[in-house]
Amino acid sequence: MPLKQLQMDAEFPEVSYVGRGTSAGPMLMGAMGPMGIAVGIAIDEGIGSDIERALSDSLVQNQATIVKSVAVNFPKAERFALRKIEFKSDANDDDLAYAITTLILYPSETFKCFSSESSPLNALKSSDIGWKVVNNSFASEVACEDL
Q: Most distant CA pair in the chain: distance in Å?
């Protein structure tokens, strides 16, 4: 039986990264004063911007795969929106990051959140691997926080 067409909202999700910079902020504060925390946050924002650019540049090639995965996992959905993809540094290795993806399913307006495996941070910043990470995370639903 063929899958029904599922619509993905056109609005690009909010993409962020929390990692080395935020945790380095307090250490930088010792050397730089209050400016150290701002520098730490700016480091993470820069990494987040790189990941967002890589995702944006590769959306067209990966969108059909994402739509198909959501359709398979949530057959009652008629439409969905990727709201947020938050990358976080792996607690055991700063060179790795995992994603927490938040999507909304319509017409039920149900929020769903997923956690991915960790992937190399450099690849996330420079290739379409972020979409593969998001796609594979749909098998690992987690509780949504801070909605």
A: 63
Q: What is the mean pLDDT of each run of 10 residues along the chain (147 residues)?
A: 76 91 66 74 88 96 95 94 95 92 96 96 95 94 81
Under a CB-based contact definition with an 8 Å cutoff, are residues 123 and 78 in contact? no
Q: Which of 25, 4, 21 is nearest to 76 (CA)?
A: 4
Number of CB atoms found within 10 A of residue 117's CB:
13
Instruction: Tell me how far the alpha carbon of residue 77 is from its chain's centroid.
Output: 21
DSSP letters for 56-115: HHTHHHHHHHHHHHHHHH-TT-SEEEEEEEEEEEETTEEEEEEEEEEEEEETTTEEEEEE
**What are 120's two structure tokens?**
């190399």
Q: Position 146: which residue type?
A: D
Q: Which amino acid is at 117?
A: E
pLDDT of amino acid 1? 47
